[in-house]
Write a structure and sequence with these properties.
Shape: globular
CATH superfamily: MFS general substrate transporter like domains
CATH architecture: Up-down Bundle
Structural class: mainly alpha
Radius of gyration: 20 Å
Helix content: over 70%
Distance between the termini: 44 Å
Order of helices and strands: HHHHHHHHHHHHHHH
């Protein structure tokens, strides 16, 4: 790698291990993204309401264990927490193929698996975000997040084809095994990273409750974080409801088979791949706030395209794929800039509690929101619901562009940014 600049992230072996771990877990998750919904729809005859409940169970960890997890993260080794929850996710996902093999597969079991795997994101993922900030430094944070997002998108391009082959060969439940293995490999890679972590000193007599409150107070007193809560809350409801229902729409309304759904997932992943460098370009050209707003507006356009009716198979498959491509492109632009923005305005000593506090306050309405949207889809149909979600994205993007305050960058040390 002598042709690379001396400060290139690609020269950093620790970052390369993190990069590979992220890619593997996203590759496995892209398989489950198709295999788990198909398991619910095809084997367990799930309705839109059932899919909404499943999505709600995947959100519950963020509003139940999230806040105390933030204190734990700030007090502990982030890398070890990430490894522990990667292993937990692998064990949880293994229940799906075992349930299919031994005839105890059910919707409640899928809800349990969803809760366990989402706990990995709520706690292990939060720890890994903080660890990434320490590993690469604040000055390279947007660049690192865009590279990780690009890696995720590449994995999502390959994943649907693998998923389609696995579903056709061994069935949807057994295809989930690959996701379990991906988390196992990720745990080993993250465990192999050698980096001296900064563990925050905890004042004697400071309780966990007081430290949880400190994270919530940080969010409330930091203008950017306080404003982002509203954007993120609506985004989570919109994006999670769409993710919960898009496979149901493809399978039942568009009559697409597993291979066709793999095609639209691949096209969506290509959109995410394009969104990662686009996020970095938009941030440099227009600023991080406007780049975030553009991502949300693009996602809304993708929802409209996905909901449009099609007359035949080719239009259905390629039209839905185009819609998912635009949605995932917008989602990547939004996520890269959102993650970088909230990390940039938060001091190191509070990063863990910031992440979990932001997730806690913004996800509180999401479980009931996804269930309500699922019930609405059973009542009025999926297409009107998708168009309503697209309208919500437009409103959210315009409000974000207009009202998000200018970020005040935090020092790496202990003090919160000025308000």
């Amino acid at each position: 790698m002598s042709f690379l600049p001396a400060d290139s992230l690609w020269r950093d072996r620790n970052f390369l291990r993190l990069f590979l771990a992220t890619t593997l877990t996203v590759l496995g998750t892209s398989i489950s993204q198709m295999a788990l919904p198909l398991t619910a729809v095809q084997l367990l005859d799930a309705s839109a309401t059932d899919m909404g409940i499943l999505a709600a169970c995947q959100l519950l960890p963020f509003v139940t264990v999230g806040l105390p997890a933030g204190v734990w993260i700030d007090r502990s080794h982030k890398r070890r927490i990430a490894v522990l929850f990667d292993l937990s996710a692998a064990a949880g996902l293994a229940l799906v193929p075992l349930g299919a093999l031994f005839d105890f597969l059910s919707l409640p079991l899928l809800c349990v698996v969803g809760f366990v795997v989402s706990s990995t994101e709520a706690i292990g993922g939060s720890a890994l975000q903080v660890f990434t900030t320490q590993l690469v430094g604040r000055e390279r944070l947007v660049l690192a997040n865009s590279k990780l997002s690009a890696a995720s998108s590449v994995a999502l391009v390959v994943g649907p084809a693998i998923a389609a082959a696995l579903v056709a060969t061994v069935g949807a439940p057994l295809a989930v095994t690959v996701d379990a293995l991906s988390f196992l490999c990720s745990a080993m890679l993250v465990a192999s990273i050698r980096h001296r972590e900064v563990i925050n000193a905890v004042s004697a007599g400071v309780s966990w409750l007081a430290q949880m409150r400190e994270g919530l107070v940080l969010v409330w007193r930091t203008p950017m974080l306080r404003a982002l809560v509203w954007v993120v809350a609506l985004w989570i409801i919109v994006s999670d409801a769409f993710r919960a229902l898009y496979v149901l729409h493809a399978a039942r309304n568009l009559s697409l088979e597993a291979g066709d759904i793999a095609l639209i997932n691949t096209l969506g992943a290509l959109g995410g791949l394009a969104g990662a460098p686009l996020a970095h370009w938009l941030e440099r050209r227009f600023g991080i706030r406007r780049a975030l707003a553009v991502g949300v507006l693009l996602a809304g356009a993708g929802l409209c395209l996905y909901a449009l009716p099609r007359a035949d198979w080719a239009l259905a498959a390629w039209g839905a794929g185009l819609g998912l491509m635009v949605f995932d492109c917008g989602a990547a632009v939004y996520v890269v800039n959102y993650l970088s923005l909230r990390q940039a305005v938060t001091p190191d000593a509070l990063l863990g509690r910031m992440v979990t506090s932001m997730r806690f306050v913004s996800i509180i309405p999401a479980p009931l929101g996804t269930i309500a949207i699922g019930r609405a889809a059973d009542g009025v149909g999926l297409v009107p619901v998708f168009l309503s979600l697209a309208a919500a994205c437009v409103v959210m993007g315009l409000l974000a562009a207009r009202f998000l305050p200018r970020p005040v960058m935090a020092n790496a040390g202990g003090a919160a940014p000025p308000t």
